[in-house]
Design goal:
The structure holds two protein chains of two kinds. Helices cover 35% and strands 22% of the residues of chain A. By secondary structure, chain A is an alpha/beta fold. Chain A folds into two domains: 178 residues, Rossmann fold; 36 residues. In chain A, the strands form two sheets. Chain A has a six-stranded mixed sheet with strand order 5-6-7-3-8-9, with helices on both faces. In chain A, strands 2-1-4 form a three-stranded antiparallel sheet, with helices on one face. Chain B has one domain: MetI-like fold, CATH 1.10.3720.10. By secondary structure, chain B is mostly helical. Classes of the chains: A alpha/beta, B mainly alpha. Chains A and B meet through strand 5 and helix 2 of A and helix 7 and helix 8 of B.
Chain lengths: 257, 262
């Protein structure tokens, strides 16, 4: 569903994290937010999902979410945020337990989400028994089970090693083909941005502002093909050109200054 | 071509290696040395009875019902005292972990009263409740209450904020966040607190029984000392050690069962 971000600003005490961010996101679009560390991209994601109250500005959703969407704005977290005392199945079922839906529907949704993420055989395992990649698949299944209208992905692959990251990126793309949700994806990884985004929003360093919006004209489904490799490499180079100086400056700033 | 020399090994050494028989050997060695010292007269029986004498005292006193009677009297104080203190401590500690107002009002008070050695309050509690059982149970309950409240509070506090955010992001009601995220997440810390409060309860039990009781392991040890029956005295101390070990063993099992997801 279309999401509208209107002149959103946020301050932590006296530190301005975001300043006057305006952004319209179309239905079903994948928007990747990138920027130097500390630019407020995770803060913006927290505001969009209603976990943080912006100091100024409004985030709104056009239209009414479909009835089967139990939790219109749904997160996938960098550190997975799984409950270690619950099995995979019970972690995935957690968001449904307090909803008034028939038990059969509940079990069906959980089974479908487990199947989609390749977790069916691991349903009774506990998070500690799983690799990082499998843990994040649980996080993805838990998000899909509520049929989100807007998926908010907060550096979902950053805690994974490079190889697992590649595998999960492919999984995300396969899942996204069937998911109508609008996706807002925060990362600092340029390769992820070039692979996954319809549009990349580059934020400036603190306080974060929209510095540039870059549309990638290669269809997401075709990006693995070799004839597009040069184009995507160019996109990554362009993104790096936009970020490099600011990242270098941000790197030299005192963290709490 | 240069000469090839193998690289000398310099790791290892500090790695713990399992030594399954050594603990038993050490125990046997100590008991053996002790017995030898007693048999040769190096340890006068008035100061320190031999292990064999202590064993005999334990067997005799068990057979004639003395030990069971004292143990029963002790457990009738320790178990209610620990349960009352734990229930109240968990209620206050968890409330401080959930509600900012409870934390702001309760934490300074609990922290200020926590360091008081609770046995110092026994005379006051005797004035309130009389010399009988309630004052002893109250001392134990009070001693258990404060560490329980503090460990339950910090256990709630140490539940990762991100898990709570996750619950909020899925629209879980507050009660569900407490029941499904906060309390299970605080369980390891709460159970670790039980180990501390069990030893506090045992300590206060013995102290309270030495101050004024006819029965109970503490009273038994004190009487044995007054009568210079060192074999009974050491037998009583051995009982306390066994009681402590049993409690710790039981709590270990409880922990492994409750935290089986770890």
């Amino acid at each position: 569903m279309p999401v509208h971000i209107e002149s959103v600003s946020h301050r932590y005490g006296t530190v301005a994290a975001l300043e006057g961010v305006d952004l319209d996101i179309a239905d079903g679009e994948t928007v990747v937010l990138i920027g130097p560390s500390g630019c407020g991209k995770s803060t913006l994601l927290g505001i969009i999902g209603g976990l943080l109250k912006p100091s100024d500005g409004v985030v709104s959703l056009s239209g009414t979410p479909p009835v089967e969407s139990l939790n219109p704005f749904t997160y996938i977290f960098q550190d997975f945020a799984l409950l270690p005392w619950r099995s995979v199945r019970d972690n995935v079922g957690l968001p449904l337990e307090h909803r008034a839906i028939p038990a059969a529907d509940r079990a069906g949704r959980v089974a479908a989400a487990l199947a989609l993420t390749g977790l069916t055989d691991f349903a009774d395992a506990y998070p500690r028994q799983l690799s990082g990649g499998m843990r994040q698949r649980v996080g993805i299944a838990r998000a899909l089970v509520v049929r989100p209208a807007v998926l908010l992905l907060d550096e979902p692959l950053s805690a994974l090693d490079a190889q697992t990251r590649q595998l999960l990126m492919d999984d995300l793309l396969a899942i996204w083909g069937r998911e109508p949700a609008t996706k807002i994806y925060v990362t600092h990884n340029l390769e992820e941005a070039a692979r996954l985004a319809d549009r990349v929003v580059v934020l400036s360093r603190r306080p974060g502002r929209v510095r540039e919006v870059l549309r990638i004209d290669v269809p997401v489904a075709d990006r693995a093909r070799p004839e597009h490799a040069a184009r995507l490499a160019e996109v990554q180079r362009r993104l790096w050109d936009l970020i490099r100086d600011e990242a270098a400056t941000a790197d030299r700033e005192m963290v709490d200054g | 071509m240069a000469e090839r020399r193998p690289i000398p090994f310099r790791g290892g050494g500090f790695d713990p290696v399992p030594r399954p028989i050594v603990p038993w050997l050490a125990l046997v060695a100590i008991l053996g040395l002790w017995q030898v010292a007693s048999s040769t007269g190096l340890l006068p029986p008035l100061f320190m009875p031999s292990p064999a004498t202590v064993m005999r005292a334990l067997v005799d006193l068990s057979a004639d019902g003395t030990i069971p009677r004292h143990i029963e009297a002790s457990l009738r104080r320790m178990i209610p005292g620990w349960l009352i203190g734990t229930a109240a401590g968990l209620a206050v500690g968890i409330a401080m972990g959930i509600f900012s107002t409870a934390r702001a009002s309760g934490l300074p008070i609990v922290s200020a009263l926590f360091p008081i050695p609770k046995i110092a309050l026994l005379p006051l509690l005797i004035l309130w409740f009389g010399i009988g059982e309630p004052s002893k149970i109250a001392t134990i309950a009070l001693g258990v209450f404060f560490p329980t409240a503090i460990s339950a509070y910090s256990a709630c506090d140490s539940v990762p904020r991100n898990l709570i955010r996750m619950g909020q992001s899925f629209g879980l009601p507050g009660a569900d966040i407490v029941r499904k995220i906060l309390l299970p997440g605080a369980m390891p810390g709460i159970l670790a607190g039980f180990r501390i409060t069990a030893s506090v309860a045992l300590l206060l039990l013995v102290a309270a029984e030495m101050i004024g009781a006819e029965f109970g392991i503490g009273a038994f040890v004190l009487q044995a000392g007054n009568l210079m029956q060192t074999d009974h005295l050491v037998a009583g101390v051995a009982l306390l050690s066994i009681l402590g070990l049993l409690i710790s063993f039981g709590l270990g099992h409880l922990e492994r069962w409750v935290l089986r997801w770890r």
